[in-house]
Amino acid sequence: MTRIGLVVTDPTTFMAADPHLDAAPLREALRHRGADAELTIWHDEAVDWAAFDLLVLRSPWDYAERPAQFEAWLERVGALTTVLNDPELVRWNMDKRYLAQLEGAGVAVVPTSYHHEMSTLEAALSPEGPSTPHVVVKPSVGAGARHTGLFARDSPAALELGRAILAEGGVVMLQPEVPELSEGRERALYVIDGQVTHAIAKGALLERGGGLRGGTYQENPQVLEATAREQEFAGQVLDAVGEVTGLPVPLYGRIDTVDSAAHGLALLEAELFEPLFNLQLVPEVTEIFADAILARA
What are the C-alpha distances in Å from 273 to residues 136, 191, 207? Predict the structure, then answer.
């Protein structure tokens, strides 16, 4: 019997990691197909990782709080069994500076500058910097909108957040506000084996002036039909990922996009190892996902 571990984190210590949203339905679908499937916490030292035929990363969302530990875990378990998506791809995808590489490969992205020190961030936010009334500040390694804020570009809070990111050893990403995102028009395109299965609108998350709307990270997912243009764009992004990394098409992914007046259809992020699929809204995709996993086991 094929033994499969769905890799999550501990919901008692990372409250956003609700295993019932995605991992539990997927586990049951795999079991229904005859696999021995279970949820495994990536930092649980008691787990015998070599006992699994396949590990599928699903929601190790606290990786951003201890990225070095997560990378070391990837290297260790990758030597013991098959991990999907590929650990090499995951390590590349952990740092959002990959966006610059995808842009170089011809993918349209939201304009982004990267800052390793306060002097360049201060210059970018100065009156002589790029003319945009509001900006988004966030770390290049992060999840769940941690250390992410939307500010007036002359707000001291923007610099304070940047300083906090740098103090933790991070790299600051600076982007112009995209009005369509503030209007809740981000669209997430979900792919399995390179094919778009569904699309989700998540709603706006960031409050102007800093913080999250409603005070907590709370998506409001609504199922949408991906347009032909969006499906083509998702394919372009995955092709560029393959071109940049030299790796094959991943088992799964989520391509976050916005269609904006200023930038056209543009990539926000390509989530290639821990995207929430919102399977509770699209149970038919659970079956597609389970079949794709078993095909690679």
Answer: 24, 12, 27
E strand intervals along 9-153: 36-41, 54-57, 82-84, 113-115, 134-139, 149-152
Instruction: Transcribe 177-220 into DSSP letters.
Output: --HHHHTT--EEEEEETTEEEEEEE----BPBTSSBGGGS----
pLDDT, one tens digit per residue, over 8-45 is 988 776 655 565 679 999 999 999 999 999 999 999 99
The encoded tokens of residue 77 equal: 């378990």
Q: Give the chain's end-to-end CA distance (angstroms, integer).
A: 11
Instruction: Provide the pLDDT for residue 187.
Output: 95
Cβ–Cβ < 8 Å for 69, 43? yes
Element (H, E) at 145: none
215: confidence class by pLDDT, cuts 50, 70, 90: very low
